[in-house]
Specification:
mainly alpha; two-stranded antiparallel sheet; disordered N terminus
C-alpha cells in the first residue's frame, strides 16, 4: 500500500505568494541604482576625460553599482518563483528549462554589471590605473549589447503563458514583444531593456495577487491507495 504525500504547507503556500514580489524590488533597486549613478559618459568619451569624471562622481557610481547588484539578487528570486509556477502548471520541461536558463544568464549579467560599476567607482580616480585600462573598463559599463538572457526568459514565459496558460495572457503577450525587442538595434533595444524593469515589477504584483494552483492548494490529507 502506498500513500499520496503531496502536501502544501501553509508556509510554502505563503512563500509562493510572496516570492514574485521580489520583481518589484528588482525594478526599484535597478532604477535607484541608475539614478544614483546619474548621467554617465558614453563609450566614446576620451580616456583623458574619464579620470576627472570618476574623481567627481566615483562614490555615486560605486553606490549605484551596489544597488544594481542587489537588484540582480532579487531578480533571481523572482525568476525562481516564475519557474516554480511553470512547473506547477505542467509546462513542458524544455520550456521551463529555457526560462530557467535565461534567468540564470540575466542574473549573472545583472550581478556582473553591478560589480563593474562598483569597481569603476572605486578605481576610476586611482592614478595607478592607466587611462587605457580605465577606458576599457568604462566601455563595458557605458555600452550595451543584446540582452540574451532577458530574451530567453521573456520568450520562454511568453510560450508558457500563450500555449499553456501558466501566466496571464496579457503578461505572456507583452513578454513576447519585449523578448523580441531585445534584438532591436540601439537605442531601441536599450529602451526595451528599461521597459523590462517595469514588466518584471508588474508581473511580480500580478503573480502574487493571482497565485498558481500549487500556491493556493489546501494541505491534503494522505489517502491510502492500492
Amino acid at each position: 500500500m502506498s500513500t499520496d504525500t503531496t502536501i502544501e504547507s501553509p508556509g510554502t503556500a505563503a512563500l509562493h505568494r510572496i516570492a514574485p514580489l521580489a520583481g518589484v524590488l528588482f525594478g526599484a533597486l535597478t532604477i535607484a541604482g541608475d539614478f544614483t549613478i546619474g548621467p554617465f559618459p558614453d563609450g566614446s568619451t576620451p580616456a583623458a576625460d574619464l579620470r576627472a569624471y570618476y574623481a567627481a562622481h566615483g562614490s555615486h557610481v560605486a553606490l549605484g553599482g551596489t544597488l544594481m547588484g542587489l537588484g540582480g539578487v532579487f531578480f533571481a528570486i523572482f525568476a525562481a518563483a516564475v519557474w516554480a509556477r511553470l512547473r506547477g502548471a505542467a509546462v513542458p520541461a524544455v520550456i521551463s528549462g529555457v526560462v530557467l536558463l535565461g534567468a540564470a544568464v540575466d542574473t549573472m549579467a545583472d550581478l556582473s554589471s553591478g560589480a563593474g560599476y562598483n569597481l569603476l567607482g572605486g578605481i576610476g580616480a586611482d592614478p595607478n590605473v592607466t587611462p587605457e585600462a580605465l577606458q576599457a573598463l568604462h566601455i563595458n559599463g557605458a555600452e550595451f549589447g543584446v540582452g540574451g538572457g532577458a530574451a530567453l526568459f521573456l520568450l520562454g514565459v511568453a510560450v508558457a503563458g500563450i500555449g499553456y496558460r501558466a501566466v496571464p495572457r496579457w503578461l505572456a503577450w507583452t513578454a513576447l514583444l519585449l523578448g523580441l525587442a531585445q534584438f532591436a538595434p540601439s537605442p531601441y533595444g536599450f529602451f526595451a531593456s528599461l521597459i523590462v524593469l517595469l514588466w518584471v515589477a508588474v508581473a511580480g504584483v500580478a503573480l502574487a495577487v493571482r497565485p498558481d494552483a500549487v500556491a493556493t492548494r489546501a494541505p491534503a490529507v494522505p489517502q491510502p491507495v492500492g
